[in-house]
Amino acid sequence: MEAGKTGWRAALISLLLLGCLLLVWHVATLPKESAAGAAQDEYAKLMGKSSGAAKSDGFPGLAQMGETIRKELSNPFYDNGPNDKGIGIQLGYSLGRVGLGFAIAALVAIPFGFLLGMSPLMQRALNPFIQILKPISPLAWMPLALYTIKDSSVSGVFVIFICSVWPMLMNTAFGVASVRRDWLNVAKTLEVKPLRRAFLVILPAAAPTILTGMRISMGIAWLVIVAAEMLVGGTGIGYFVWNEWNNLSLTSVIFAILVIGATGMVLDLFFARLQKLVTYVE
């Protein structure tokens, strides 16, 4: 009951903060009429012309943002050519690249993480390579990927793979190595075969830590894909942001930023729910 009250209070505070933010935005973007603008309006009246709208500082107001959001969401999957696609199509391209790169990283990182966690020898042998490669920015691999792969879309998938593999690898190795020795000793006493022990004893025990690594990897992957698509262009939500900036459509840029944030939140909530499902109380 207390948790429910806390949830309602948190939601109320969030709504109040959102309302304050929107109010500040509205006040900050109110049209500001300068002396020159007033003179121009007076001149227009003398000439029998209607006065123009008061000039603002250039940042879009809430009404402009609302119109852009309505326009973009009314037809998110339109396709009028290479440089004119709806936000839904661009988001689909980005999610596809992230999903493919993330899946390949999981197929590589989780088995290797088991190997490192179950074998201190292999962990010591491979640790220098991991420590050298892990700090390299994923975008630093983009020129090499473009030169060797010669395909911007596949290069984007490769960059997602590179940035996703390390958190999953390290968290899997840590989770496997942290399994309670009592459980492993019982499995050894019962003469459980290594493969069966890995799936029935080690994997359930290490699952929360593995999901934590996957959650971190997904967050990093979603950050990186936007920057990568800005660099390589073509399609994707990152390219959408860059293209709208080149078109001087600041409202569309802000709308895309909101879509990126909302999508990242949904992905994080998905992995948080998975993490909660596999978490157990000892």
UniProtKB/TrEMBL annotation:
Domain ABC transmembrane type-1: 91-271
Subcellular location: Cell inner membrane; Cell membrane
Entry membrane topology: Multi-pass membrane protein
Pfam families: BPD_transp_1
TM regions (residue ranges): 98-117, 129-149, 155-177, 198-214, 220-241, 253-272
Gene3D superfamilies, alphabetized: MetI-like
Record flagged with keyword Oxidoreductase: no
Keywords in alphabetical order: Cell inner membrane, Cell membrane, Ion transport, Membrane, Transmembrane, Transmembrane helix, Transport
Coiled-coil positions: none
NCBIfam families: ntrB
Family per similarity comment: Belongs to the binding-protein-dependent transport system permease family.
Name by which UniProt lists this protein: Nitrate ABC transporter permease
Organism of origin: Herbaspirillum chlorophenolicum
Gene that encodes the chain: ntrB
